[in-house]
Design goal:
Elements: H1 3-30, H2 33-36, H3 48-81, H4 99-128, E1 136-143, E2 146-151, E3 156-159, E4 177-181, E5 185-192, E6 197-201, E7 206-210, E8 216-221, E9 226-232, E10 244-250, H5 252-264, H6 279-286
Parallel strand pairs: 1-5, 4-10
Antiparallel strand pairs: 1-2, 2-3, 5-8, 6-7, 6-9, 9-10
Helix pairs in contact: 3-4
């Protein structure tokens, strides 16, 4: 056996081993729970909106992977089929035009873009639509650097204070906590008392800006019970990193008990715009 033959044989075995390793890695990762969620920081059943985002995200990645495999396959085929052979000189034979291939390269990307737009628009419309009759309506104020929650249906409130993260265990339990009943339609009325903030609960897979003198809405149906971390996602000043909160999705009985606890503590009524401190808004209102 010649040295060239042995070299080609070794290269062939190496390529086969690499292909097997890649396929094994893809197969193993595809079986993990994280991959089934698209490596997103949540689980199915957290909210209905989160489930829609998961489906859109994973579907987009599957489509992208399919396109990538086709493109990579065509590239490899071209490199092999049109390579310069032994004893050949100059460039391999060139193809100037190929009408069927050009039509394919035009129609397929347009179809992919239209399909992705359709599913994205459908998911966005469902996520941003407001409920006609939500089970719970809560007003959320962002402020430097804490949160106020008005439970409008129960006429009670929670007034948050700035967190001080010392690094000691248990500090997270002292953060402001927004309570939500499980398996309920929730509408959040979101605004700001001073500068622009952003309401973000990573496990819910959605966030929304909090703008002074403007109300935005977030509507979703809660699912499983649990406690989820939230934070401000807009740089809002010196202690932006400490503008944290928790979201506790609890049973209806526990939610009612928390509302009664706020009443017993004297937190009745609604904290309105009288606590806003944006100087530009004050000047506008005075004029």
């Amino acid at each position: 056996m010649s040295s060239q033959t042995r070299t080609g044989s070794r290269r062939g075995r190496a390529l086969k081993a690499s292909a097997v390793a890649v396929l094994a890695t893809i197969s193993l990762t595809a079986c993990s729970e994280q991959s089934k969620l698209g490596f997103l920081p949540t689980e199915r059943g957290t909210t209905d909106n989160a489930d829609q985002v998961i489906d859109l995200w994973i579907g987009s990645w599957i489509a992208a992977l399919g396109v990538g495999l086709v493109v990579w396959g065509l590239m490899l085929w071209c490199m092999v089929a049109y390579r310069r052979r032994k004893n050949e000189t100059g460039y391999p034979r060139q193809l100037a035009y190929n009408a069927p291939l050009e039509i394919f390269y035009t129609i397929v990307p347009i179809a992919l873009i239209v399909t992705l737009f359709f599913f994205s628009f459908r998911a966005q419309t469902a996520i941003t639509d407001r409920f006609e009759n939500p089970d719970v309506k809560i007003q959320v104020y962002g402020k430097q650097w804490a949160w106020d929650f008005n439970y409008l249906d129960d006429n009670v409130h929670y007034q948050g204070i700035q967190a001080h993260l010392t690094g000691e265990p248990g500090v997270e339990e002292t953060l402001p906590t927004l309570y939500l009943p499980a398996d309920s339609k929730v509408e959040l009325e979101i605004t700001s008392r001073d500068v622009i903030h952003s309401f973000w609960v990573p496990a819910f897979l959605e966030k929304i800006d909090m703008i002074p003198d403007r109300t935005n809405y977030m509507s979703f149906t809660t699912g499983r019970e649990g406690t989820f971390a939230g934070k401000c996602a807009e740089l809002c000043g010196e202690y932006h990193s400490e503008m944290l909160f928790n979201v506790a999705v609890v049973s209806q009985q526990e939610y009612d008990a928390q509302m009664q606890r706020l009443r017993d503590e004297g937190n009745t009524g609604i904290l309105g715009d009288e606590y806003n401190r944006n100087p530009n808004l004050n000047e506008t209102s005075n004029n």
